[in-house]
Amino acid sequence: MSRIFREVWLFFWRDLLIARTYRTVFVLDAVESLFGAAMFFYVAKFVDSPQLEHTLPQAGGYFAFSLVGFVFLDYLNVSLDTFDRSLEEARDSGTLEHLLVTQTSLSVLVAGSAIYPFLATTVRIAVYIAWAVLLFHFPLSAANWLGVFAVLLATLLAFSGLGILSASYLLLFKRGNPAKWFVLGISSVAGGMLFPVSILPNWLQLLARLNPVTYALDGMRIALLGNANFSALLYPLGVLLLFSVILLPLSVLTFSWALRRTKMNGTLTHS
Amino acid sequence: MPPAAISVEHLEKFFPPTRSGWRTFLQPFERPTSVALAGITLKVREGESVALLGANGAGKSTLLKILATLLLPTQGRAFVAGHDTALDSRAVRRQLGYHAGTDHGFYPRLTGRQNLLFFGRLNQLSTSATMKRIALLSQQFHLDEALDRQVRTLSTGTVQRLSLARALVHQPRVLLLDEPTRSLDAIAAAEFRRFLKAQILQSGNTSLLFASHTLPEVEFLADRVAVIDRGRLLGFNTPELLKAQTQSATLEDTFLRLTSSTLPLPNDPIIPGEGASS
Questions:
Q1: Can you tell me the ipTM of this complex?
Q2: Interface probe, candidates B29, B93, B122, B148, chain A, greatest A C-beta count within 10 A
Q3: Do A98 and B69 touch (CB under 8 A)?
Q4: Residue ranges of chain B whose CB lies within 8 Å of a chain A CB
Q5: Which domain holds residue B88?
Q6: Nearest CA to A125 among A63, A193, A70?
Q7: What is the pTM of this model?
Q8: Which of A22, A98, A261 sits opposite B119 (nearest CB)?
Q9: How far apart, in whole angstroms, are the C-alpha atoms of residue B168 and residue B162?
Q10: Number of domains in chain B
Q11: Least enclosed by CB within 10 Å: which of A63, A191, B69, B110?
């Protein structure tokens, strides 16, 4: 086990060193998140009304609702994108072949490449929320931090499965990220990002109930804004874990199969 | 008797045709029809150095990639230190140092040292052991200045030397080198060959299989030479015996006689059997 942690740490160390060579990006990200938080604050100021407040499931008004929806969709984006992107970068830079002839297992190579993007996104979201708290009175007094951590972890597990499936697609067909397109496309309407699922027509509500994003955002809002104890989180957490249990083993098996196929066809390094 | 360092038995490799447009979606499921290797059998003994000699597209890189577990054979089997490359790839990779013959394969924003440290650690060396090896190899390959510069700022030849250092950093038992001196200047190439012979091959603990188009390099480094053409093994023996068998004065003539229809062989083609490969 310590060997796996050591190897995963190596990937984090590699990505951190690379990121340090682009220092300006950290500053730009911080500024961008300030503008983002401000935008949601003023949009909320414009649209908030007692009737709207009544429709929202948690306290904090539309500002808190939409900001949580927007920034946590970033996590989903990273989960769906990171395996794909690291594979594509490794293939295009020629490091993929050299990684695959090391003594490190494929699952560590895949997991290791995701650690830095996840942690970087966590920091970015924390900065976003920090701006919102400091400048725009984002309500954090009702947060259940253990719950936030549990929802984050369950979300990452569930969406990593989709991300690895997408990387398998990239291995086989060289371009495109259908999981991202499908999940984020549907989620923009039926995921509860900027408006509650309850206002949708019945058939779209049904679609939203089949979409893991709905549970991830529900869980995050309950944990951050809902003044909730842990039992209120059991339902969204349970559904996210169910997605994880199905998707993770399926995605790892699919990735191994896709890699075997590309080794058979000689297309591992093709782009 | 210890297992051969490398053993290849009736190895065949076919690739599917390349598709574009909507047919790309059928590519992973296409039938492989294009021949890259057509039933090659050979063995590399412990501590032996064998050169693969052949024209472009002869199948040398394909053979090296199968041994490096980057490709799966269509038929036949390949073993490294007794481990099947298709069935036990992780055990195979524990024995391997691989150089792909390109100046790609590094993280351009990391320094040479950071790159070598990363790959050395992935090959289960400790940080201090990797650092010691990096220090030794940087002396041998004149990489001292390059180690602390980002790889994107290095010349092609320097990256090539860095790549050779990476293949050697974890002291593998079996080295697979695809055109190891391709981008090196004459002096660097000669130094690398001398280093390989004196420091790596002389100990007898490392076996080498390398592809090269440079005939003096082949004669200097190789105990035996495997001549490959269109996926077939046409000859496999020591350079001297190959020359004698083809009644050629030079290895170049030997190669041309074995591969070219314009220079007929004095005797039958030298198709290696068990005798030639053991």
A1: 0.86
A2: B122
A3: no
A4: 13, 15-16, 24-25, 27-28, 30, 32, 36, 62, 65, 68-72, 74, 90, 93-94, 96, 98, 100, 102, 104-110, 114, 118-119, 121-124, 150, 166
A5: 6-95+172-277
A6: A70
A7: 0.85
A8: A98
A9: 10
A10: 1
A11: B110
